[in-house]
Amino acid sequence: MISFNQVTKKYRQKVALDKVNLELIEGKIIGLVGENGSGKSTMLKLIAGLTYPTKGEVLINEKTVNRRSASIVSYLSELDEYYRFYNVEKTIEFYASQFSDFDPKKAYEILTFMKLNPEIKLKELSKGNRGRLKIVLSLARNAPIILMDEPLSGLDPMVRQSIVKGLLSFVDLEKQLVLITTHEIRDLENILDEVIAIKDGTIIGHHNVEQLREEQNLGIVEWMTTIYE
Amino acid sequence: MSDLFRSGEPIYLQLAERIKRQITRGELQLGEKLPSIRDMGIAVNVNPNTVQRTYRELEGLKIIESKRGQGSFVTDDEHVLQSIREQMKKEAISRFVQGMREIGYSDDEIQAGIESYLAGKGAPEQ
Predict the structure, then answer these.
(1) DSSP H helical segments within A88-205, as ranges?
(2) DSSP 8-class letter at A87
(3) Which H helix or E strand runs over B100?
(4) Banded pLDDT at A80 (limits 50, 70, 90)
(5) Taking Cα atoms as reference points, which of B26, B93, B94, B16 lies closest to residue B62?
(6) What φ, ψ does residue A37 adopt, rounded to 5°?
(7) Which of A197, A182, A105 is nearest to A142 (CA)?
(8) What residues 140-169 of chain A have any CB closer than 8 A to a CB of chain B?
(9) Beta bridge partner(s), residue A60
């Protein structure tokens, strides 16, 4: 469904990704792990069509990614760029107006599940509730590809748990692929189908997680310790 | 929340084991409907693809059966239940005995130890 063919991405002289090859197939939840600056976010932006490869190509369903790919890719980086004076309800309306696959009914279901008050203004949301709102907005789209950049980062355990449950409850793996970058592997390890490790712009490992456990008796964290040494 | 499962072993097998125990303990009755794949995934925080594999594994063992359009059910075959109970008993005993032998106990000591445990102060709490 998503292919990287010999993708190199440079920002001025700095190489963010170096000749990356990757194939991702639909119906999976995939974790992308690696240190800050390793190239994780660049990969998401390339899939979302927010930046383009310096060399090589990124394909979705055999078509080169471009700006219009946003119509089939749900990608939320930062919530801070939204209109801070909007309340939650208005933000949902705004999203519904921007994306034809945005399902307001689903948005309210997730909202209720996350116990978010639709009246509250974005600038008044706590960090945890901003994290929850991001999940509402990205999962309410019936997009074939959902990208999440550090959805659990800096959130307390209760919020992390509600986000993981929300993800499991509202993602439709018959039709969707989810790619998540994360440092919080423990929270996500049981819900990932695959894990990809990236270091200095290069993919250093890509595995089916159950296979890692079955064939090497390794959990994701233990596996990472072996490959990052 | 990851506490339910050990990290270095396949989750689909651990979940299958968990369901088998629920059956042997009677928490899941013969013929009872299992949660849908999605609901089971949400309940134990596991990917639905993994739950699906667990259900397939248990179907292969004839412990559950899926009825088209209705979901998955615990078998209503008493013999299957008996054989799971027997098999799990053997596995538990074998693990225990192996552990005791590794510590260095003789079979007589193990047997005597169990008898006194069951008869006396070490009887099951609860």
Answers:
(1) 88-98, 104-113, 127-139, 157-170, 185-188
(2) B
(3) helix B78-103
(4) low
(5) B16
(6) 80, 5
(7) A105
(8) 161, 164-165, 168-169
(9) A2, A63
Buried b (16+ CB within 10 A) or exposed e, A48-87: bbbbebeebebebeeeebeeebbebbbbbbebeebeeeeb
Length of chain B: 126
**CA A69 to each of CA A97, A99, A182, B34: distance values in angstroms, whole numbers, following the listed order:** 17, 12, 23, 40
The angle formed by the CA atoms of residues A162, A167 and A168, to the nearest 5 degrees, is 100
> What's the one-letter identity of residue B31?
G
Cα gap A89→A117, rounded to integer Å: 9
Which of A189, A214, A221 shows the shortest C-beta gap to B10? Answer: A214
Q: What letter does residue A151 receive in the DSSP assignment? A: T
Phi, psi of A87 (to 5 degrees): -90, 175
Indicate the average pLDDT of chain A.
90
User: Distance of CA A141 to CAs A106, A108, A110, A172, Å?
Assistant: 8, 12, 11, 11
Q: What count of other Cβ atoms lies within 10 Å of the Cβ of residue B87?
A: 13
Report the pLDDT averaged over residues A30-48. Answer: 91
- Tell me how far apart the alpha carbons of residues B69 and B72 are, in angstroms, rounded to a whole number: 9
User: What value, to the nearest 5°, has the Cα angle with vertex A224 and ends A218 and A226?
Assistant: 75
> For A161, which residue in chain B has the nearest alpha carbon?
B1
Q: CB A114: neighbour CB atoms within 10 A?
A: 20
Q: How far is B14 from chain A (nearest CA, A)?
A: 11
* A8 phi/psi in degrees, rounded to 5: -120, 135
Structure tokens, A64: 């080169």
pLDDT of residue B2 exceeding 90: no
Instruction: Kindly state whether B58 is in contact with chain A, defined as any CB-CB distance less than 8 angstroms.
Output: no
Q: For position A36, what pLDDT does the model report? A: 85
Q: What interface predicted TM-score (ipTM) does this complex get?
A: 0.83
**Distance, CA of B74 to chain centre:** 13
| 8 A C-beta contact, residue A208 and residue A193 | yes
Written as one letter, the residue type at A108 is Y
pLDDT greater than 50 at residue B1: no
